[in-house]
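#struct-queue
[09:14] JT: dropping the first one here, sequence first, then the structure tokens:
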Amino acid sequence: MTTIFIDGEAGTTGLQIRDRLAPRRDIELLSIAPEKRKDAGARRDLLNSVDIAILCLPDEVAKEAVGLIDAKSRTRVIDASTAYRVDPQWAYGFPELSAAQSKKIAAATRVSNPGCYPQGFIAVVKPLIVAGILASDAPLTYNAVSGYSGGGKKMIADYEKAGASASPYMPYGLTLNHKHLAEMKTYAGIGRDVIFQPVVGNYAQGMLGAVPFFIRKTSVANIHEILTEAYFGSAFIKVAPLQAIERSPGIDPQALNNTNRMRLQVFGNDARGQVLLMAIYDNLGKGASGAAVQNLNLMIGAEEALGVDLASAN
């Protein structure tokens, strides 16, 4: 029986992790009394008494929580904040990053859960960098839309209160200094920052990211083949068949909600030398809580897919 403490279980990500873990019989979930959530002593005791602490906290509070864990404690940590995403002392919690990443996560005492937006970008770009199809200094853009749940409790409340009158398409990050830039650059293996343009849509959850670029000395079919080979055998990332289509109802940011799955799509035009890569996944699933449970499973030696989807998912 593995003991788990979700520090920040009342937040959006924490609640979804708890919902995924609650039915399991191989895990004991421990909680702190609401009145002691800000009691450093009580948190220290609990953080040092469990096998795995999952931190669903703002960056500074996450750092504080890690500081409360004694150096000799057996407690291992999964941190869902951005505090340690590019820290080389922490394992990056995207098992599909490389053939060795799952083993690195499984052996780690400190795992940084990936951000929601970066996973789609990394998934489509990194294999092409490795294959030499994309130069590491290629100028890239990433356009992505997320459900409002990605903004946390206040944004959820604001959108739900506004209802149909809420903005259907709200671009942000307009200073071009988004906190996910370093993460995308580091793990995609690129040598320059991507131009990242995130958007919030008037729907609760689900994500779609798109990376367009010009191709040289290759073809759309070859790019599709490289991505297909990169994720061959993956339980969670699949590459859709290559199709020359103008539109499809399946190109929907909500298509994989409540799952830990990601679907990659390749579109392009060889005559124009252009390609468009897309990643569809749930910002609360593969983009957050599902990914955390997947990492937890690797760390405790459980079956990797156990409980990564919500019970209500198809």
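[09:21] JT: and here's the second one, same format:
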Amino acid sequence: MATSLISGIVANEYDASCITACDIDTDKLERLARDFGISTSADSRVAIRGAEVVILAVKPQVMQAVCEPLADIDSARDCLYISIAAGIREREINRWLGGNRAVIRCMPNTPALIRLGATGMYANPLVSNAQKQLAQAILAAVGITVWVDQEGELDAVTAISGSGPAYFFYFIELLQQAGKKLGLKEDTARLLAQQTALGAASMVKNGNVVELRAQVTSKNGTTEQAILSFQQNDLASLVDRATRAAYDRSVELAQQFGEQ
């Protein structure tokens, strides 16, 4: 995700020389410097010197270890910290950074890799309007952004868009398998399922999903029979239960990290 953000920011003509990436993997840093022309450092305390924004693009399990060494750096007190780690509350990040920090939590998703991401964003009270606008500009480099008023809403964002791509991948997978069972060759079923998903998603951007479904669902036609089968088998409740399970797990992970 960090690479995607760097790629998107640089593509938006932001000065690459003003970006510094930090990682313990020196090979990765060399690739980033070569591919994007940015600065790199293996020392996080050095990397954030003079920074206006620090993006914490690390796994939740190492967030505490990454944040705590930055807590006593005076020049970093006025930074905006943007976390894209799932499950860790702003309160914990703030505490690990030494307190009284401007922190924004983001929940991006994997289509950010191709700049078609969807990111939910929450800002703590110490984030200024100018900092919110800056953060939005950064994340908009890889897709759309939406703000939520309460941090707990990010658990719902996780359940819908954060985990959502996998739901669609799974449905496409099931369509491919159904096509094979109906007699299609594997490659044919795969291409048809993939292109159908791509086309439908593209149409949704400029239309209403309910109206689009009605337009393709002719009375007594083939599509109507499939939709009726979905309804009779209570697909709506299945989706509700699945997204609730993702939501509950997001809440659970936040509680676990908060106990550390």
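[09:30] RK: nice, looked through the second one.
[09:31] RK: The two ends are 25 Å apart (CA to CA).
[09:31] JT: good to know. Strands lie at 20-22, 39-41, 53-56, 80-83, 102-107, 117-123, 143-147.
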